[in-house]
Amino acid sequence: MIAIITGASSGLGAEFARQLDREHLSEIWLVARDTQALTAVSHSLKTPCRIISCDLSSESEIDTQIGSMLESTKPVVKYCVNNAGFGKIGPLHLLKSTDMTSMIDVNCRAVVQLTHMVIPHMKSGSCLIHTSSAASFVPLGGFAVYAATKAFVTSFSVAIQAELVDKGIHSIAVCPGPIETNFSKRAHQGSVRSDSVMKKKVDAEPVIRKAIRDAKKCKSLSLYGIKFNLMPIISKFIPRILMAQVSYNRVMKTEKR
Ligand SMILES: NC(=O)c1ccc[n+]([C@@H]2O[C@H](COP(=O)([O-])OP(=O)(O)OC[C@H]3O[C@@H](n4cnc5c(N)ncnc54)[C@H](OP(=O)(O)O)[C@@H]3O)[C@@H](O)[C@H]2O)c1
To answer: Which of 56, 58, 70, 212 is nearest to 131 (CA)?
Structure first.
């Protein structure tokens, strides 16, 4: 039985790899573009790893790099961690068009494509883990595309949880707040700083530990920290336009600094 982890070259993906290393799997497939970083992660694990170099923004690369490997080796997939993702901060008109489409491709399309691809290789007890975000519960002005992609991920994960119940396959959306990874560095866009909406970052280790525990308890969502546990409830009571406006003002304030 294997685990497939996308975005395993750094941050949360590398942490998932370290923690799933304890699960007595026959292999862990580590997927990302930076093969050097993937190799470094693989060297820190006891479980044998396959390094899969794949740009997840490309539908054809997912087919040739992951699809063909699944077809030729026919593994049982115990965990598929759809974790790779990124966000570019800033108002829509300042985003590069390639960043916008790539965010949608990596954060949404690749998740659906890989999920569709792995389900035939899963059996009862298998689990799909989707790294979504607390941003999936609120529209974020100044981070609009990213928050919308994560709303898609949470909705998709919960919906397929219902579809897969009869097969005994579970799906969970992990929806954390800011975590100490390369995410915020990659989110910077021109003069707009991601620190404006990404304050008080926590370590990845306890977030992922809770995510795996929640997956084993067959929860729909994994939330970490008091504030973010309340997020799905709070978001029902505060007008969405107000939340979007507050977020936009925070982003633009840092741009003017
Ligand atoms: N850190 C946070 O505050 C936070 C909070 C909530 C949710 N999240 C979510 O957590 C997930 C992991 O992010 P992170 O925080 O660990 O950030 P990170 O350290 O920047 O890691 C992002 C991972 O995604 C991979 N990736 C990005 N674009 C890719 C592409 N086109 N093809 C293949 N792989 C790609 C990167 O690998 P390569 O560059 O090697 O390809 C890297 O392994 C993301 O989905 C993010 O939205 C993060």
So the answer is: 212
